[in-house]
Amino acid sequence: MSPKPDRSGSNAQTVAAEDKRIQEALDKLRKEHDALQKKKIETDTTLQNLKEQLEELKRRAEEEYGTSDVEELKALLARWREENAQKVAAYEEHIASIKDALERIEAQAQTEPAS
User: Fold this and answer.
1) Model-level pTM?
2) How far apart are the first and last CA of the chain?
3) 99 close to 106: Cβ distance less than 8 angstroms
4) Is the torsion defined by CA of 32, 34, 40, 46 positive or negative?
5) CA–CA dist 111, 104 (Å, integer)
6) Could you tell me the residue ranges of all domains in the chain?
7) Most buried residue among 11, 24, 56, 68 by CB atoms closer than 10 A?
8) pLDDT at 10
9) What are the E-state strand segments in 41-88?
10) Angle, helix 8-65 to helix 70-111, in steps of 10 degrees
11) Is the CA virtual torsion 98, 103, 104, 108 positive or negative?
12) What is the pLDDT at residue 51?
């Protein structure tokens, strides 16, 4: 009877290679987890900072405009823009009337004989 070939060495190498592959995959996953954990901490910090900024802006809006409601602030802004447009139009009319008066005075001065 012929001796059977010894496959235990080959099997041990296969198991060792599989263990190494699993360990490398685990190491990669740990690094990814650590990176994600770091990103989560950074995101949480950013979120907290943004929440604090929002609260500060709401407080200031309440102080300055009497509201922090976005729709009410939009309405205030629209009203103020309309008021400004009316003021600009009135000012343009005022300037035009001054120009007209000045032109009349200049025309009158040119038609009157010098004393």
Assistant:
1) 0.57
2) 150
3) no
4) negative
5) 11
6) 7-67, 69-115
7) 68
8) 81
9) none
10) 50
11) positive
12) 98
